[in-house]
Automatic annotation (TrEMBL):
Start and end residues of each stretch annotated as Disordered: 142-161, 181-225
Protein's name according to its UniProt entry: Dynein axonemal assembly factor 4
Example GO biological process: cilium movement
SUPFAM superfamilies membership: HSP20-like chaperones (SSF49764), TPR-like (SSF48452)
A cellular-component GO term for this protein: nucleus
Localization, UniProt: Cell projection, Neuron projection; Dynein axonemal particle; Nucleus
Entries under PANTHER family matching the protein: DYNEIN ASSEMBLY FACTOR 4, AXONEMAL, DYNEIN AXONEMAL ASSEMBLY FACTOR 4
Organism, as annotated: Elysia chlorotica
TPR repeats: 276-309, 352-385
Length: 403
């Protein structure tokens, strides 16, 4: 027996009604919609939404849109008046509801038949218009051929005039080339004269310095020493490229997380079970072998001991994604992103993984707008990742098709 949806939302004005029915994680291709002037039905097994409207609406103007995990109806009232309630009082009567279902199916059947007739009439009109357009195209083709012949004649005349102009320009360029060659020859002779004079001056200067050296009037310079101090850096990036305040805050958070590991725990636990790093490695081992539930238990135990290590939440989110616990995956990824603040180059890879996992969970829930937002944020961190770019483009196409 189908489950009746009661958590719908509706709004109204004097002339319009909006109704939003949640799909509860069901894929949009499994949704069946029935709509007429006073009856609505949305069937997506195992759920069903059925509504006998308070007053008639214009079924020709209304619309239904599926997207972001819901079906949204946009209806136009036949009479401008406030309903104050969506359901008709007779909706509790099963016999009346049965009758309204049959009337709705009959109305839809008549509407389809009328649409078929209208399409046939439109097709005949289009055929007549196509013949008329074909005749116009033939006339345009004859005119085009005539214009081409005239254009070719004009082009031949223009080519002849252009060739004459090119020959004149070539003659002028040759004349300028010969004058430039003469100028270069004169400049080369002047340069040789200047070089000869420089050599003579250099020879005279060498004789003067040689004499000074022999007389001892030009003593040699004393040796010097230069000391350069370097600022120690906790990160390998230069100061001019790093964000010092953010990096220092990140180091403080990491140190605080490590200090919390040293807190005493339950005395009944084994020594290795008190070590979050051992539990992290154990969870990774379970994940690699496909035992995702055991991995979740290991990560959860480690989080109880040190709740400020972002890798524990990010890895547990990956496990939830594998077993399709999408809401828990989104929650863990969001917690990991909070702990990965501030954003510095040293945690860029971890932020990218958390964003991709959360975006994938959103897409599995058909929340493509939220998923695309996380993928675009991940692409800003890793712009050269072609797989991420391809998945983001696929989401944009899905969103556009839905709209």
């Amino acid at each position: 027996m189908p489950l009746v949806v009661k958590d719908y939302v509706w709004e109204e004005t004097d002339t319009m009604v909006w109704i939003t029915v949640p799909l509860k994680g069901v894929k949009s291709n499994r949704v069946d919609i029935t709509s007429c002037k006073n009856y609505l039905k949305v069937s997506y097994p195992p759920y069903i939404f059925e509504c006998l409207l308070f007053a008639p609406v214009d079924s020709a103007k209304g619309s239904a849109q599926i997207g972001n995990g819901a079906v949204t109806f946009k209806l136009y009232k036949e009479e401008p008046v406030l309903w104050k309630t969506l359901q008709h009082p007779d909706s509790v009567n099963k016999e009346i509801m049965k009758l309204k279902r049959e009337e709705a199916h009959e109305e839809i059947k008549n509407r389809l038949e009328e649409q078929t007739k209208q399409n046939a009439e439109t097709k005949r009109e289009h055929e007549k218009l196509a013949i008329s357009e074909m005749m116009k195209l033939e006339e345009q083709e004859r005119t085009r051929i005539s214009n081409i012949k005239e254009s070719e004649r004009q082009k031949a005349t223009e080519d002849l005039e252009r060739w004459k102009e090119e020959q004149r320009l070539l003659a002028e360029k040759e004349k300028e080339r010969m004058l430039e060659a003469q100028r270069e020859q004169v400049e080369a002779e002047k340069e040789r004269d200047r070089e000869e004079r420089r050599k003579q001056r250099k020879a005279r200067s060498a004789n003067i310095f040689e004499k000074q050296g022999k007389d001892g009037k030009a003593p040699p310079r004393e040796n010097g020493k230069i000391i350069v101090n370097h600022t120690p850096r906790a990160f390998p990036t230069p100061v001019r490229e790093s964000q010092t305040e953010q990096e220092e805050e990140w180091l403080r958070k990491q140190a605080e997380a490590k200090r919390s590991i040293e807190l005493s725990l339950d005395a009944d636990l084994k020594e290795e079970e008190k070590n979050p790093q051992w539990l992290l490695d154990k969870g990774n081992s379970f994940f690699a072998s496909g035992d995702y539930k055991s991995a979740i238990n290991a990560y959860t135990h480690a989080i109880r001991m040190t709740p400020k290590l972002p890798s524990l939440y990010s890895n547990r989110a990956a496990c939830h994604l594998k077993i399709r616990n999408f809401f828990k995956c989104i929650e863990d990824c969001s917690k990991a992103m909070d702990l990965l603040f501030p954003a510095v180059p040293q945690n860029a890879s971890s932020r990218c993984k958390a964003l991709v996992r959360r975006g994938t969970a959103f897409c599995e829930l058909e929340l493509y707008v939220e998923g695309l937002r996380d993928y675009e944020a991940a692409l800003k961190i890793d712009p050269d990742n072609k797989a991420l770019a391809t998945d983001a483009e696929r989401m944009r196409q899905i969103i556009q098709a839905t709209d």
